[in-house]
Specification:
Layout (H helix, E strand, L loop, with lengths): L8 H7 L1 H14 L6 H14 L3 E5 L2 H11 L7 E5 L5 H8 L3 E5 L20 E2 L12 H7 L4 E5 L7 E2 L2 E2 L6 E5 L13 E5 L2 H11 L3 E3 L2 E2 L10 H11 L2 H19 L5 E2 L15 E5 L4 H10 L29 H7 L2 E4 L7 H19 L2
Parallel strand pairs: 2-3, 2-4, 4-5, 5-8
Antiparallel strand pairs: 1-9, 6-7, 8-9, 10-11, 12-13, 13-14
Helix pairs in contact: 2-8, 3-8, 4-5, 4-7, 9-12, 10-12
The structure holds pyridoxal-5'-phosphate (PLP).
């Protein structure tokens, strides 16, 4: 029995535990638990990292998306267009802001938003998701709508990914990031951020995350409580220093996977990032076109390999949305790929031997039983 989980947070903690412990201890000693020093320091450092003017730390990636939509004035009936294959937080956030969700299908080649599949009403906002860390083609948005829609990037999975030298999360009017623990830059609990070059929008998000208040007990907006926790900011400050190194290590592991799996006929490897772009391999997602994916997944898990599916049910087929307009539409490519994709373990501390072991077990399963 192997022991190779999808993600191994223990190793990262163990490798840097002294630094983490010190950072948390410092916060406890200072007792500046809410909007403390570390929050501001992280916001500044992460803004510099992304190449944007403002980062506002918030409580989660879901809140980041919802606060952006509220801050840009999305209201009842406004259409926000996103893609059918995403984590449900994307659409939950749109609905929580009172806007209407519209969905488009994805491209067969790279599982990213394909705007040409959408013929509905002109959206107010287009929200592409850099899924698995693969940088979406953002040029299609301008080609289709000119400058008449707002771009909001869901960058929850793409810390450090780039498009022509610019970081994902720096293109939109405002962009959302998640620091859920398993993300490439992950906190020790829930955390998120909004990134924007627009100072007014930044101020609006600052209001909304803090009860609509700039000065204590003076409330100028109908805000809520959605601040980045100081303890989490302290952890993120430690991790930010290693993010690029970790992303390169993920690329190294992804290349190893490619080398060992390229000759396996049942496997379609993940798309390569377009020229001049960089993907952070938040997930390494292969596709089994001619094999029984569910049986392969089960056998991998039985042998101690923590493969997964991201995501098994596309948004339009989620039970919770059964009565929504988009549930009645067909998204053939997103629907098909949901039945064929398989995420293999990847995390910066994974060893070459572990990658080789996953490849060996997987190819053996495919040889023995995998064919449909
Ligand atoms: C694509 C995507 N959007 C939004 C979110 C929401 O982030 P959070 O879990 O921090 O609320 C996540 C991750 O969880 C995600 O993967």
């Amino acid at each position: 029995m192997h022991q190779i989980p999808l993600v191994n947070l223990q190793r990262q903690y163990q490798q840097h535990c002294e630094e983490f412990n010190q950072a948390i201890l410092k916060t406890m000693q200072a007792c500046d638990f809410v909007l403390g020093k570390a929050v501001q320091e992280f916001e500044e450092k992460f803004a510099a990292y992304l190449g944007v003017k403002n980062v506002i730390g918030v409580a989660s990636g879901t809140d980041a998306l919802a606060l952006i939509l509220k801050a840009i004035g999305c209201k009842q009936g406004d259409v926000v267009l996103t893609q059918d294959n995403t984590f449900i937080a994307t659409t939950l956030a749109i609905l929580s802001a009172g806007a209407k969700v519209a969905l488009c299908d994805i491209s067969e080649d790279n599982y990213s938003m394909n705007l040409s599949s959408y013929n509905g009403a002109r959206p107010k906002v287009v929200m592409p998701v850099h899924l698995y860390g693969f940088p979406c083609d953002l040029t299609q948005i301008e080609q289709k709508y000119g400058n008449n829609v707002m771009l909001v990037e869901d960058t929850a999975q793409a810390h450090g990914s780039t498009i022509k030298g610019r970081r994902c999360g720096s293109f939109g009017i405002a962009n959302a990031l998640s620091f859920y623990p398993s993300k490439n830059l992950g906190a020790f609990g829930d955390a998120g951020a909004v990134a924007t070059n627009d100072d007014n929008l930044a101020q609006e998000v600052r209001y909304l995350r803090n009860w609509g208040s700039k000065t204590k007990y003076i409330h100028e907006r109908e805000g809520g409580n959605s601040r980045l926790d100081t303890m989490q900011a302290a952890v993120l400050l430690v991790k930010l220093k290693y993010l690029d190194e970790w992303n390169l290590q993920r690329n190294h592991l992804a290349n190893l996977y490619r080398k060992h799996l390229q000759a396996t006929p049942e496997i379609i490897l993940p798309p390569l990032a377009p020229e001049g772009c960089f993907q952070n391999y938040h997930l390494f997602v292969i596709r089994l076109k001619t094999a029984d994916r569910d049986s392969v997944l089960k056998q991998l898990q039985e042998q101690g390999i923590g493969a997964g599916i991201h995501y098994p049910v596309p948004i339009h087929k989620q039970k919770v949305y059964a009565n929504y307009e988009f549930a009645k539409q067909g998204f053939p490519i997103a629907s098909n790929t949901a039945q064929q994709i398989l995420s293999l373990p990847i995390y910066p501390e994974m060893t070459q031997q572990e990658v080789e072991c996953v490849c060996e077990v997987l190819t053996r399963i495919l040889e023995q039983t995998g064919r449909k």
